[in-house]
Q: What sequence folds into this?
C-alpha cells in the first residue's frame, strides 16, 4: 500500500494551490488525485478574462490562470494521477485510507497522514428544480453548455432562454450571443441577481439581454426537443402569479440555479457539514472536525473569485503541512464560535482558536439579501471591534473581514464572535 504525507483530492484551482503551498512548507510526499483528463478543473472551460487580478496583478483567462499553477506543480515535480476517481476515505488512528481507482492502476488503497478536500462543486440540475413538462433535448446546465462550446466545439442551440442569474449563466448569455445565438431573456426567481454586478453589466447590459427578476419557468414545451418555455412572475413567497404568464419560443434552456459543494466523500469520513453552505465546518486552519482533514475552494463554500480560492487553498496547504510536522501543541486551544446573524447567512471559518491564528485571519461571508448604506460589524462578546460602512451588500458578492490576532488574544473572556449587518 502506497503511503503519502498528503493526498489532495481534486486537481482544480484549489487543489493545485494547496499542493504548491504544502510543498513550499516542506511537504515532500504529496499526491494529487483528479478525476478529469487534465489538471485545472473548471478553469479550463472559462476562456473569458477577469482571472488573476488579485493573485498575479494582471488579467488572465481561466486556462492561463490554471497554467500558472500547473507549471508550478510540474516544476516542483509534485505527482498527480488523472482519470482517477476517489471512492471512499476512512479515518484511522495514525493515518487516513483513501480508496481510488483508474484504468491504469485499478483499485488502489492509499495511506495519507493528512488529506485536503478540494473537489469543487456541481450545478443544480433540472431534476432538483421541479419544472413541469416533458424531458426533451435542449435543456442543459450553464456549465455543461460552457464546456460544450468552449472545449468540445459543439453549439447547444440557437434560441436560448436562461433560468437563473448566477455568474455562469450570465457569462453564458454573452458567450452564446457571441457564437451567434439569440439569448431572449435571463429569468431569476429571486428579486436580486445571484451574480456579480460586473457580469450583469458586461454580459447582459452590453448586449441588450433582458434580466427579469422575480420570474421563473413554469412550463417547458416540446416533446423531442424544446420548442418554448413559459415564464411567470412570482410573489414574495416565490409562487407564480396567475395572469403574468409569458411564452418564449426557444430551442434551448440553460439552467444556472445554484452550485452545490461536492461533499459525498466528506460525509463518508465523518466531516460535519454546514446546513447553509453544504460545505465542511472548519476552524481558522481550515481543518474539519476530523483531525488531519482540511477543506478549501468551492467544496468548502462557493466563491465568486478564483483568486480567493487560491488564497484560501494556500492556507489549507500550509496548515496541513504544520499538522504533518506534528505542530500539535496548540491543538487543544479553546475554539470560539463565529455567529452569522442579522442579515449575514454564514461565515467561513465557523470557529476560531485565537492561539492558533496567524497575525491576521480573513473571515469570509455572504449576506442573505440586498442592503444599502449599512454597516458590517464584528463583536467579541458584547464588544464591537470592527465597524465599516458599505454602500451595498448583495448575496452574489462575497464579503470579507480581516481579524487581528491581537484583538482576540488581548481579551479572551468572550465566548462568541458575532458578524452582523447594522443600519446606518
A:
Amino acid at each position: 500500500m502506497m503511503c503519502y504525507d498528503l493526498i489532495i483530492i481534486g486537481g482544480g484551482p484549489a487543489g493545485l494551490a494547496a499542493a504548491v503551498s504544502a510543498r513550499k512548507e516542506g511537504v515532500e510526499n504529496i499526491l494529487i488525485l483528479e478525476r478529469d483528463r487534465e489538471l485545472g478543473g473548471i478553469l479550463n472551460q472559462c476562456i473569458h478574462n477577469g482571472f488573476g487580478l488579485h493573485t498575479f496583478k494582471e488579467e488572465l483567462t481561466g486556462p492561463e490562470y490554471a497554467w500558472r499553477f500547473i507549471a508550478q506543480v510540474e516544476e516542483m515535480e509534485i505527482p498527480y494521477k488523472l482519470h482517477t476517481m476517489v471512492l471512499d476515505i476512512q479515518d484511522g488512528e495514525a493515518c487516513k485510507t483513501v480508496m481510488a481507482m483508474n484504468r491504469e492502476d485499478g483499485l488502489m488503497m492509499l495511506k495519507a497522514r493528512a488529506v485536503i478536500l478540494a473537489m469543487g462543486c456541481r450545478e443544480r440540475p433540472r431534476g432538483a428544480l421541479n419544472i413541469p413538462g416533458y424531458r426533451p433535448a435542449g435543456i442543459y446546465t450553464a456549465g455543461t453548455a460552457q464546456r460544450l462550446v468552449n472545449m468540445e466545439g459543439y453549439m447547444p442551440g440557437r434560441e436560448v432562454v436562461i433560468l437563473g442569474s448566477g455568474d455562469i449563466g450570465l457569462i453564458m448569455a454573452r458567450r452564446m450571443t457571441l457564437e451567434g445565438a439569440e439569448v431572449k431573456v435571463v429569468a431569476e426567481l429571486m428579486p436580486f441577481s445571484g451574480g456579480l454586478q460586473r457580469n450583469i453589466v458586461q454580459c447582459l447590459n452590453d448586449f441588450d439581454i433582458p434580466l427579469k427578476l422575480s420570474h421563473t419557468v413554469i412550463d417547458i414545451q416540446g416533446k423531442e426537443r424544446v420548442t418554448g418555455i413559459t415564464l411567470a412572475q412570482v410573489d414574495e413567497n416565490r409562487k407564480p402569479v396567475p395572469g403574468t404568464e409569458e411564452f418564449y419560443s426557444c430551442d434551448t434552456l440553460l439552467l444556472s440555479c445554484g452550485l452545490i459543494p461536492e461533499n459525498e466523500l466528506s460525509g463518508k469520513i465523518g466531516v460535519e457539514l454546514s446546513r447553509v453552505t453544504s460545505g465542511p465546518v472548519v476552524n481558522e486552519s481550515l481543518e474539519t472536525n476530523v483531525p488531519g482533514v482540511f477543506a478549501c475552494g468551492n467544496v468548502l463554500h462557493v466563491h465568486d473569485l478564483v483568486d480567493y480560492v487560491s488564497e484560501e487553498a494556500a492556507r489549507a496547504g500550509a496548515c496541513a503541512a504544520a499538522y504533518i510536522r506534528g505542530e500539535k501543541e496548540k491543538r487543544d486551544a479553546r475554539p470560539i464560535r463565529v455567529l452569522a446573524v442579522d442579515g449575514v447567512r454564514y461565515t467561513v471559518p465557523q470557529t476560531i482558536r485565537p492561539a492558533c491564528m496567524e497575525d491576521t485571519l480573513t473571515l469570509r461571508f455572504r449576506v442573505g439579501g440586498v442592503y444599502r448604506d449599512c454597516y458590517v460589524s464584528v463583536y467579541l462578546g458584547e464588544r464591537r471591534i470592527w465597524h465599516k460602512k458599505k454602500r451595498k451588500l448583495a448575496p452574489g458578492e462575497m464579503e470579507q473581514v480581516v481579524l487581528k490576532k491581537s484583538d482576540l488574544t488581548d481579551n479572551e473572556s468572550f465566548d462568541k464572535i458575532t458578524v452582523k449587518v447594522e443600519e446606518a
Remarks:
- The first strand starts at residue 2 and ends at 9.
- Helices lie at 13-24, 62-75, 142-152, 167-178, 197-204, 264-268, 306-324, 405-409.
- The chain has a mean pLDDT of 94.
- Residues 98 and 110 are 5 Å apart (CA to CA).
